[in-house]
Amino acid sequence: MSLAPDAARGLRRVFVRGLTVQARLGVHAHEKARSQRVVIDVDLAVRDEHAPLGEGPDDLSRVVDYATVAATARRIACAGHVRLAETLAERIAIALLADARVVVARVGVQKPDVLTDVGSVGVVVERTRF
């Protein structure tokens, strides 16, 4: 499913890009013992009950708040050692789907400091309510 906003289907897009945390992520001994820089990207397809023609109330309670999205990802990433970037991304995606308005969660996890001649390595996973 596309994460593009789609008024006809009543969907908007909420995203958090470049959330940088210090997390213990990886299979190597040094990754278990010491945190490293991890960059998280989140894209959500969220139900928009006022689409395609309406405007909802200008109130935070009616939307998925990106500060809450970032806090959820941060909390999960910093909760303790995780061996696989895939597992971390899946945990974040599943947690974000707990909000019934979220229909698709796509989460990317990057480790920018792993390979000296590469800008970043990582994974993107997608979980959906459908």
Automatic annotation (TrEMBL):
Pathway: Cofactor biosynthesis; tetrahydrofolate biosynthesis; 2-amino-4-hydroxy-6-hydroxymethyl-7,8-dihydropteridine diphosphate from 7,8-dihydroneopterin triphosphate: step 3/4. Gene3D superfamilies: 3.30.1130.10. It catalyses: 7,8-dihydroneopterin = 6-hydroxymethyl-7,8-dihydropterin + glycolaldehyde. Pfam families: FolB. Residues 14-127 form the Dihydroneopterin aldolase/epimerase domain. GO terms for cellular component: cytoplasm. GO terms for biological process: folic acid biosynthetic process. It comes from the Bacteria. GO terms for molecular function: dihydroneopterin aldolase activity. Its EC number is 4.1.2.25. Keywords: Folate biosynthesis, Lyase. PANTHER family: DIHYDRONEOPTERIN ALDOLASE 1-RELATED. Belongs to the DHNA family. This is dihydroneopterin aldolase. It comes from Neoroseomonas alkaliterrae.
